[in-house]
């Protein structure tokens, strides 16, 4: 009983403003709108700058009257995000959720969390401790993780497109699909096969 | 707690009587048990609750759902509520409890034909939408879905408006009306939750701990915890709801009982996996690695 009509409208609305916000939301596959992938650019002036972060979204049956479940699938070093599982500690994804919020506004809040960590309410105790006790090391670790896990060089994308073309998909379609899932080969392949 | 009310026949499903409090003359029928405590029977529960509601409605000239929201916030402590009113004034009393009584001057004489609901993103005839006290307006279908989720989630007593960051508590008559159209059973459950709140959120009232439950609750007249006796014959300590244990303190008695039952594993599990809510003191389960938890009473804490 997810309100799919609303989800559809949300996706359209979000798609109109990708240039402005950099926030993308796309279905994981064409089979259902209940599993989606969100993409947020790392905020400028933070150790996440230049990275593109993917977030797995699962809509509960009661959506939008219950909050969407969101979890980073890109590894990220942040006090309020588990470095192991990607679980996010954010009030609007819990008791402060309101049905008037959307996937896009929720992702914007996640992006804001990247800019403004709250180490006093940690999801990842190790990261939070480092943030409070050794801020410089925290910054360089977070930057290193961004470089390692959240950046796909343009050359990397070309290689992936090439690989998909070799598998028999049209180049343009391979490219747009890859872009829509933030450069994740496996997701792109899944999407192309189900589509 | 569901067990207490497995038989529904005692329950006043007469909805009009909840709204028409002014016409109700019979006060709570106390079965007196000593000078400091009173037994509230199933039958007198509604009357006892009404009495407190009426006092607040009369003093502040407000409607029943506002009075209830205030009383739930102040744990049915009428004196405390009045003290806050005198000390801080109406505005801050209301704001703290999430009551909004704002005059909405609709400048346009004719209401718009259609209203866009921000939740389902549909244009709807204004007749199919409802504006809450806070001024936020959404379609009836969306309100209904929201209420159903919140009632099933155990939040009947504090169902907030759907707008983000709006602290207003929804009008109980709107909740009752909309939910009963599609889920009459759930609407009754909602009413029952509101009724039970008089006992569960009331620091001076406690369920009698008898098993099987006799259906009664005990009200004490002062803050001093004491040993009380229910009309079913059970004697218990009002402080901890365990059997009467004077002169031993509640804490010592609790430890003793735990030791006797050798529930050390259960106790361990509770300390590792739950935290006591600072407001209502119920243990609340921690979820996942994050430390932010929220209690069904509405309190969020770390
Ligand atoms: Zn609606
Ligand atoms: Zn509101
Ligand atoms: Zn009893
Ligand atoms: Zn005791
Ligand atoms: Zn609580
Ligand atoms: Zn938290």
From TrEMBL, chain A:
Superkingdom of the organism of origin: Eukaryota
Enzyme kind, highest EC tier: transferase
EC number assigned by the record: 2.3.2.23
Keyword annotations from UniProtKB, A to Z: ATP-binding, Nucleotide-binding, Transferase, Ubl conjugation pathway
InterPro entries given in the database record: UBA (IPR015940), UBA-like_sf (IPR009060), UBC (IPR000608), UBC27_UBA (IPR041974), UBQ-conjugating_AS (IPR023313), UBQ-conjugating_enzyme/RWD (IPR016135)
Residues annotated as the enzyme's active site: 89 (glycyl thioester intermediate)
Alphabetical list of SUPFAM superfamilies matching this protein: UBA-like, UBC-like
Domain UBA: 156-195
UniProt KW Cell division keyword: no
MF term (GO), any: ubiquitin conjugating enzyme activity
Domain UBC core: residue ranges: 2-151
Family assignment from sequence similarity: Belongs to the ubiquitin-conjugating enzyme family.
Name of the protein described by the UniProt record: E2 ubiquitin-conjugating enzyme
Automatic annotation (TrEMBL), chain B:
CDD domains linked to this entry: BRcat_RBR_ANKIB1, RING-HC_RBR_TRIAD1
Catalytic reactions of this protein: [E2 ubiquitin-conjugating enzyme]-S-ubiquitinyl-L-cysteine + [acceptor protein]-L-lysine = [E2 ubiquitin-conjugating enzyme]-L-cysteine + [acceptor protein]-N(6)-ubiquitinyl-L-lysine
Residue ranges occupied by any RING-type domain in the UniProt entry: 113-302, 117-165
Keywords tagged on the record: Metal-binding, Repeat, Transferase, Ubl conjugation pathway, Zinc, Zinc-finger
Listed GO biological process terms: protein ubiquitination
Cofactor(s) of this protein: Zn(2+)
Pathway assigned to this chain's UniProt record: Protein modification; protein ubiquitination
E.C. no: 2.3.2.31
Stretches the record annotates as Disordered: 1-35
Stretches that traverse the bilayer: none
Compositional bias of kind Acidic residues: 1-11
Molecular function terms from GO: ubiquitin protein ligase activity; zinc ion binding
InterPro entries named in the record: ARIH1-like_UBL, E3_UB_ligase_RBR, IBR_dom, TRIAD_supradom, Znf_RING, Znf_RING/FYVE/PHD
Protein family (similarity comment): Belongs to the RBR family. Ariadne subfamily.
The protein's name: RBR-type E3 ubiquitin transferase
The species this protein was found in: Morus notabilis
């Amino acid at each position: 009983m997810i309100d799919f009509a609303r989800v559809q409208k949300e996706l359209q609305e979000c798609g109109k403003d990708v240039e402005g916000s950099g926030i993308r939301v796309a279905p994981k596959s064409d089979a259902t709108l209940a599993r989606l992938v969100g993409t947020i650019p790392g905020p400028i002036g933070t150790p996440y700058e230049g990275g593109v972060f993917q977030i797995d979204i699962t809509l509960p049956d009661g959506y939008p009257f219950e909050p969407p479940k969101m979890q980073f699938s890109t590894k990220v070093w942040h006090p309020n995000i588990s470095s192991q599982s990607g679980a996010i500690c954010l009030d609007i994804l819990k008791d402060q959720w309101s049905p008037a919020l959307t996937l896009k506004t929720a992702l914007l809040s996640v992006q804001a969390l990247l800019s403004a960590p709250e180490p006093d309410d940690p999801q990842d105790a190790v990261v939070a401790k480092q943030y409070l006790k050794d801020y410089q090391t925290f910054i360089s670790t977070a930057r290193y993780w961004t470089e390692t896990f959240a950046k796909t060089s343009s050359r990397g994308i070309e290689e992936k497109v090439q690989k998909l073309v070799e598998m028999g998909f049209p180049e343009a379609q391979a490219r747009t699909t890859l872009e829509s899932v933030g450069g994740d080969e496996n997701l792109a392949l899944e999407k192309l096969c189900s589509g | 707690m569901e067990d207490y009310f497995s038989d529904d026949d005692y329950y006043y499903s007469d909805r009009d009587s909840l709204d028409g409090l002014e016409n109700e003359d019979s006060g709570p029928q106390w079965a007196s048990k000593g000078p400091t405590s009173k037994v509230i029977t199933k039958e007198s529960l509604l009357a006892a609750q009404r009495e407190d509601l009426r006092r607040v409605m009369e003093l502040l000239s407000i409607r029943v759902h506002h009075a209830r929201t205030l009383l739930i916030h102040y744990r049915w402590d009428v004196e405390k509520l009045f003290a806050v009113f005198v000390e801080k004034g109406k505005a801050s009393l209301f704001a703290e409890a999430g009551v909004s009584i704002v005059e909405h001057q609709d400048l346009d004489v004719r209401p718009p034909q259609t209203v866009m609901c921000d939740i389902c993103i549909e244009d709807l005839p204004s007749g199919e939408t409802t504006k809450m006290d806070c001024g936020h307006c959404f379609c009836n279908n969306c309100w209904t879905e929201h209420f159903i989720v919140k009632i099933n989630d155990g939040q009947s007593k504090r169902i907030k408006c759907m707008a983000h960051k709006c602290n207003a508590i929804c009008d109980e008559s709107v909740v009752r009306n909309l939910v009963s159209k599609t889920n009459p059973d759930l609407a009754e459950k909602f009413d029952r939750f509101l009724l039970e709140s008089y006992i569960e959120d009331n620091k001076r009232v406690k369920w009698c701990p008898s098993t099987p439950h006799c259906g009664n609750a005990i009200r004490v007249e002062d803050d001093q915890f004491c040993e009380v006796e229910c009309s079913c014959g059970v004697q218990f300590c009002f402080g901890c709801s365990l059997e009467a244990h004077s002169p031993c303190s509640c804490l010592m008695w609790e430890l003793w009982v735990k030791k006797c039952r050798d529930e050390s594993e259960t106790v361990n599990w509770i300390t590792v996996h739950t935290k006591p809510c600072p407001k209502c003191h119920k243990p609340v389960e921690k979820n996942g690695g994050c430390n932010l938890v929220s209690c069904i009473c509405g309190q969020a804490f770390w």
